[in-house]
Amino acid sequence: MKCAVYYGKNDVRLEDWPEPELKKNTDVKIKIDYCGICGSDLEEYYYGPVVVPEKAHPMTGRKMPLILGHEFSGTVESVGSAVKSVRPGDRVVVNPVLGCGECYWCKKGVPCLCESMACIGLQSDGAFAEYAVIPEDNCMLVPEGADMASITLIEPCATAIRNLKRARMKVGDNVLVIGAGTVGLLTIQAARLAGADKVMAVEVNEFRSEMALKLGADAVFSPFEDDLKKKIRGITGGRGIQIAIEITGKESSPVLALEVIEKGGTIVLVGICPEPSPLLTRNIARNEIDIFGVHGYTKDDIRDSISFISSGRIKAAELITGIIGIDSIVDKGFNKLGPNGEKEIKIIVDMNR
Predict the structure, then answer these.
(1) In the chain, which segments carry CATH 3.90.180.10?
(2) Which residues lie below 8 Å from residue 89, measured CB to CB, with a gap of 6+?
(3) Which of 83, 91, 157, 276 could anchor a disulfide with 305, C-beta 3.0 to 4.6 Å?
(4) What CATH topology corresponds to 2-142+315-350?
């Protein structure tokens, strides 16, 4: 089968590999329809290996070279003898998080915190390929009539939903989203659905700023603006921001969140800063600021994500700026989404092209 294989920094190769086979009676073989290029894929391509293992992963046993791709949908090709929830011909989308199933966090329903956690397409072979084999528990049925390209965004959408749950957002809160990429734009929409009063964004890219406004943001600011807190208070009738969600991973962004958040507010950190960020702990303590991290999502978040996207309440299709064939994944995918990708948000690989 044709697939895109990761060998290291700036090295993704189109190769022909044998089709994967069912190994366990709970395995499901999927014929891939669509797979989205994620920020994690880009990080591996431009700066990696970051989380792709160079030695055998303790859960999956896989190491590079491996097939990337973890945001995907497809059609069930075959199933193991113990599989009950899906059957050949079913349309499915995949939760890519793999947990051990035995630890405290897995039993609590939060496998993204499992000590052995793996992600399909990063620590095991993924879906930039014609076929993939995954556990039954990671398959989710796609509702009738849902668009198979748009539904691939359930993974970043689940992160957006998790952001607001971790923030304990209440109806009427004012929310600031720092970074209007895929997860940021989905968080803006999710905040609207959850009953936020004002939703604002901080974004440096003009195209993404326009998209944020189109998808429901009341205002978008540059991170370099003066008196940002004062401007936000002006828009919110003096109430300011109760929740700030940092998604960029830029070193300065958590500091910006702390500068604009109101007393008693909540900051959610999603982006991973490569260097320590100089947060002012004195201000956190004196102003009783809550800070939460988000590393992934739960199966409930995935279910909510499927519901919101398939019903059209979250407009995932608006974020798709390109659909390409796998032969173009480097030139028209990774390269277009790189540092100079001024007018791109989400590019999807169509495995049937």
Answers:
(1) 2-142+315-350
(2) 75, 76
(3) 157
(4) Quinone Oxidoreductase; Chain A, domain 1 (3.90.180)
- Assess contact for 282 and 289: CB atoms under 8 A: no
339, pLDDT greater than 80: no
Token pair for 132: 């993939």
* CA 86/CA 136 separation, integer angstroms: 8
State pTM to two decimals: 0.95
Task: Report in angstroms the alpha-carbon separations of 198 from 93, 245, 263, 310.
Answer: 32, 14, 17, 25
Give me the residue label for tokens 């070193």.
251
CATH 3.40.50.720 positions along the chain are 156-293
Q: What is the pLDDT of residues 34-89, one digit of tens each?
A: 999 999 999 999 999 999 999 999 999 999 999 999 999 999 999 999 999 999 99
User: Distance (Å, rounded) from C-alpha 164 to C-alpha 166?
Assistant: 5
For the domain spanning 156-293, the CATH number is 3.40.50.720
Decide: residue 225, CB within 10 A, 0-12 exposed, 13-18 middle, 19+ buried: exposed
Cis preceding-peptide flag for 65 (omega within 30 of 0):
yes
- Backbone phi and psi for residue 34, each to the nearest 5 degrees, phi listed first: -135, 150
